[in-house]
Structure to design on (631 residues):
């Protein structure tokens, strides 16, 4: 079975829109990070699909590069989220200590 | 034996220096000893100086299509490398006592070097792969740098906000380059520019998304909304670096992409860039008028300045590139000078600074010698230069940019820019009014300070910390701002060389004429442009 490349590009456009909507509409930092990943992977899908159309490897190599970079970006994002949640918890425990006086 | 590809490492030497020093700084910073802080600073400063010296020594040496067509090392690249490294050097000096003593000096300096490396790679990129790698390398380093004061909620928030909008803009840029790849079958700028098949909707959409992604990074309106929050939350040395080096790298990369890949579409993207420029000038200047907080004011000011700098891209066919190069150098000097004073002030009062904190600081009296009032004079010069008042360099940089757009048939853009400059006097001169014409008022200071984000709770330097290095640096940068006004030729020449790498038509003679006009501030055209 073969699927025309248009469908892959169409799917990547849909994924990109879903990701963009997620970044703009969701408030949870983790979901927003997920949405950015979806956007980047939409780009990857388009790159790989076009790579097949042009019968080249450039797009696929680029997609692998993007995966590595996207991973490091998410690591930084998660690190900051963890640091923020740590701070939150510490503040909460401080309040508890005060109540018990 | 293993066959290795024949790579020209000389084309990448400045990035190799800073990238290698990044590892060393990280290792040195891990040491618990007291010397580690000094050593990290020294390693970073020496690496940046070595990179600058190498770049200047080999300024006119060009390497094309190195590393399998991924990199161009030419005059344009070298201009970007020098500006980024110099901004990094200033940030290192500002951080000497400007950062909290939190033991993260290794990370700070390593990330700074990584960011400079990424900026060099970005301006050297000649394909969308290296563009993306360079962009992400410096962006990710900057996200962490923003969030590095992890004891402050504001700092973490700034890092997270920057990461989210930065990540989204990178994704937009990536998708744009994927579409361009789909339309033309190539990722290299030159091949895309030379593609003579169907340059249709797919390519237009891709080009627009690439432009949007880069406009995000240089904080051009309407993609600017993250800038004030991120600049406010990040540590001031980081903000100073971010607001100058990022803009230089972003604008030069934008100039290269647009003028090599999308020349046939120039009549379509030029109005878009002009519109971004107008939006930035209007939004930046109007919003800056109402900011009580110095760093937020400077953030909006940087958005307005991005609007002026975009004029250089609009005028790419004429004298835009040399004017852009000169304007980037001048912008970096005056903005860093302003931030240097903010660092000094913040350390003295022990919290973020507002306009009320400036009151009376320019006075010379019993408690203040001439020398102690010098930093205030320095920041005043930087503000006048940012406002574009002759005979400061800021005037000539704006003159060059507006001259270019007039020649390109966008006279109305120059008018908008001139009106924007007039509005900008409202907040730039406010700094001078506070410094020299108002008495310190404790009630007003308290009222304005109440709106600031929560003060640092972690390890910090106490109020009253003296910052001799930063203060001296601020004065030096103000002097450079004045000096640049009288020595524009060397930078214009470098800009002309950079232009030669991008545009083959037209010549730089008009720029030289502009440079001559710049030498005589009284000339009527110059007065008209102001």
């Amino acid at each position: 079975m073969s699927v025309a490349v248009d469908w892959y590009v169409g799917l990547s456009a849909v994924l990109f829109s879903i990701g963009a909507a997620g970044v703009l509409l969701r408030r949870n930092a983790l979901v927003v990070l997920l949405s950015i990943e979806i956007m980047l992977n939409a780009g990857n899908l388009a790159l790989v699909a076009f790579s097949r159309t042009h019968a080249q490897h450039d797009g696929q190599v680029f997609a692998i590069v993007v995966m590595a970079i996207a991973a490091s970006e998410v690591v930084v994002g998660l690190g900051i989220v963890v640091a923020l949640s740590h701070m939150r918890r510490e503040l909460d425990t401080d309040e508890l200590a005060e109540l018990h006086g | 034996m293993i066959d290795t590809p024949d790579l020209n490492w000389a084309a990448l030497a400045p990035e190799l220096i800073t990238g290698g020093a990044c590892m060393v700084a990280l290792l040195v910073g891990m040491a618990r000893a007291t010397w580690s802080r000094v050593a990290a600073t020294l390693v970073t400063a020496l690496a940046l100086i070595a990179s600058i010296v190498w770049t200047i020594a080999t300024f006119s040496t060009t390497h094309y299509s190195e590393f399998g067509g991924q990199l161009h090392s030419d005059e344009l690249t070298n201009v970007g490398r020098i500006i980024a490294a110099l901004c990094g050097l200033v940030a290192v000096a500002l951080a000497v006592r400007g950062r909290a003593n939190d033991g993260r000096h290794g990370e700070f300096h390593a990330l700074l070097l990584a960011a400079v490396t990424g900026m060099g790679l970005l301006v050297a990129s000649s394909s969308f792969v290296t563009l993306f790698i360079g962009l992400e390398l410096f962006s990710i380093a900057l996200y962490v740098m923003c969030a590095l004061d992890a004891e402050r909620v504001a700092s973490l928030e700034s890092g997270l906000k920057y990461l989210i909008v930065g990540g989204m803009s990178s994704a937009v840029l990536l998708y744009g380059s994927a579409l361009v790849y789909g339309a033309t079958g190539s990722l290299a700028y030159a091949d895309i520019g030379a593609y003579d098949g169907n340059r249709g909707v797919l390519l237009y959409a891709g080009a627009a998304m690439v432009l949007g992604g880069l406009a995000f990074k240089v904080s051009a309106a309407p993609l600017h909304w993250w800038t004030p929050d991120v600049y406010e939350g990040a540590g001031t040395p980081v903000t100073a670096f971010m607001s100058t080096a990022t803009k230089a790298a972003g604008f030069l990369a934008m100039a290269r992409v647009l003028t090599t890949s999308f020349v046939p579409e120039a009549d379509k993207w030029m109005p878009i860039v002009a519109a971004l420029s107008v939006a930035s000038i209007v939004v930046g200047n109007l919003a800056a008028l109402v900011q009580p907080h110095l760093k937020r004011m400077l953030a909006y000011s940087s958005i307005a300045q991005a609007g002026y700098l975009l004029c250089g891209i609009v005028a790419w066919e004429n004298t835009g590139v040399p004017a852009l190069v000169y304007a980037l150098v001048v912008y970096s000097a005056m903005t860093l000078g302003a931030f240097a004073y903010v660092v000094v002030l913040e350390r003295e009062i022990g919290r973020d600074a507002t306009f009320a904190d400036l009151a009376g600081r320019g006075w010379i009296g019993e408690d203040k010698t001439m020398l102690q009032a010098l930093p205030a004079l320095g920041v005043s010069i930087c503000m006048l230069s940012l406002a574009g008042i002759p005979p400061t360099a800021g005037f000539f940089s704006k003159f060059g940019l507006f001259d270019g757009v007039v020649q390109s048939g966008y006279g109305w853009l120059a008018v908008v820019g001139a009106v924007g400059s007039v509005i900008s006097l409202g907040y730039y001169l406010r700094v001078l009014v506070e410094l020299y014409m108002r008495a310190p008022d404790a009630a007003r200071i308290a009222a304005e300070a109440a709106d600031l984000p929560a003060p640092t709770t972690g390890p910090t330097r106490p109020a009253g910390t003296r910052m001799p290095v930063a203060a001296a640096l601020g004065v030096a940068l103000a002097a450079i701002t004045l000096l640049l006004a009288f020595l524009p030729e060397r930078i214009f020449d470098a800009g002309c060389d950079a232009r030669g790498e991008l545009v083959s038509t037209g010549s730089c003679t008009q720029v030289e004429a502009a440079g001559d006009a710049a030498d005589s501030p009284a000339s009527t055209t110059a007065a008209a442009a102001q």
In short: Chain B touches chain A through 32 residues (CB under 8 Å). The mean pLDDT of chain B is 88.
